[in-house]
Amino acid sequence: MHRYEIAISFAGEDRNVASAIADRLTAEGVRVFYDEYEQADLWGKDLYEYLAEVYSQHARYCIMLLSENYARKLWTNHERQNAQARAFRERAEYILPVKLDDTKIPGIRETVGYIDLRATTIDDLIPMILLKLGRKSGDAGGTGISASVPEIKIPIPKIKKTFTQLEKDRFTKEGFGFISAYFKNGIERIRTLGGGLDADLLAIGELKFVAKLYRNGDVASQCKIWMGGAFSQNSICYSESFHDIHSDNSYNDWLTIEDDGYRLFFKSSGMWFRSSEDAEKVLDGQQAAEYFWRRFTGPLER
After folding, report:
1. How does pLDDT run across 183-210, given as a tens digit for each residue?
2. Per DSSP, which regions of the chain are E strands?
3. What pLDDT digit, counting tens, does each position of 50-59 carry?
4. Which pLDDT score, from 0 to 100, does residue 210 have?
5. Domain-embedded: residue 250
6. Bridge-based pairing state of the strands 32-33 and 4-9
7. Are residues 194 and 71 in the same domain?
8. Whose CB among 4, 6, 13, 97 lies 3.0–4.6 Å from 69's, allowing a Cys bridge?
9. Residue 99's domain spans which residues?
10. pTM value?
11. What pLDDT does residue 150 have?
């Protein structure tokens, strides 16, 4: 059983909406992760790691309140990336988008079903959430005690499929989006560490970026990561030593897309001397980002 039935991800400017949803769901006996309910538990924790666990592991569903405010906040992007990693990994419904305006959010496809709070009231939204959870209003008697709703597990045979080029293209683009967002957040965090460390990132269009780590003002590590390359359009390449940011003819590592008939995944080239175990793994977008990040930051450990 998940610790929470619903985790709410929102920008501080939209707290009034998040609070109304959280209070109504709690009154129905739903276990909700809402930061104001967790202040004592959050006190003293490493929030970067703890929130990553909440949004990637501990909730049955994640409600995202999508807005202009949501798109530009560092913490909401961190929550979104971890929630997307969970959805990406399980290939199942997990993120429940609720639109507050028309802002496009990276990784949230326009084809994903959503609720628009400009056309739907919170009074109408709550029964839909309860229905998603397999219960109806009043199941918990409004006591705040979670109703016991058994989940019936019915085994369904897996059927292999052939993935289309469109699916592969979207998988590659979403994977690159995870990597790009992961590096942006990682570099922002390094900038807060002090101790002579600094970092910078330069986006080159939508499908390429350059990242640099500095120690006492000197370059300690640098890399260029881009989508596409010599292998196929469905690859993501990594270069450590480059002289021309626009020339993509040399690389030190790469990820390619493969499938087992049930899902798409990334495989590393195995060219990194620390990556023998990674070469045997199937990687989702989050794991692919971690793989490149470990390679990029490795010189700091020497």
Report:
1. 998 898 898 888 899 999 999 988 999 9
2. 4-9, 32-33, 59-66, 95-99, 115-116, 197-203, 208-215, 218-227, 235-239, 253-259, 264-268
3. 888 889 888 9
4. 94
5. yes
6. parallel
7. no
8. 13
9. 4-132
10. 0.53
11. 47
SS3 105: coil
Q: How many CA atoms lie less than 13 Å away from 174 in the CB half-sphere?
A: 26
Q: 56 and 182: one domain?
A: no
Asked whether residue 146 is domain-assigned, the answer is no
Q: What pLDDT, on the 0 to 100 scale, is given for residue 36?
A: 86
DSSP state of 57: I
- Do 198 and 289 belong to one domain? yes
Examine the domain organization and report whether 125 and 182 are in the same domain. Answer: no
Answer whether residue 28 is part of any domain. Answer: yes
Residues 128 and 185 placed together within one structural domain of the fold: no
- Residue 62 CA to residue 58 CA, distance in Å, equals 10
Q: Is residue 63 part of a domain?
A: yes
Which two structure tokens, joined as six digits, stand for 254? 């790469």
Same domain assignment for residues 38 and 106: yes
Are the C-beta atoms of residues 68 and 103 closer than 8 Å to each other? yes
State whether 10 and 67 are in the same domain: yes
Does residue 178 contact residue 81 with C-beta atoms inside 8 Å? yes
Query: How many angstroms separate the CA atoms of 102 and 270, rounded?
Result: 42
Total tally of structural domains belonging to the chain: 2
Residue after which a domain boundary falls, among 132, 151, 181:
132
Mean pLDDT by 10 residues, the chain (302 residues): 88 90 91 88 83 88 92 86 82 86 82 84 90 71 43 65 87 87 89 89 91 93 87 86 78 89 84 58 82 89 71
Structure tokens at 168: 């592969």
Whole-number pLDDT of residue 296? 92
Tokens of 190: 């390094």
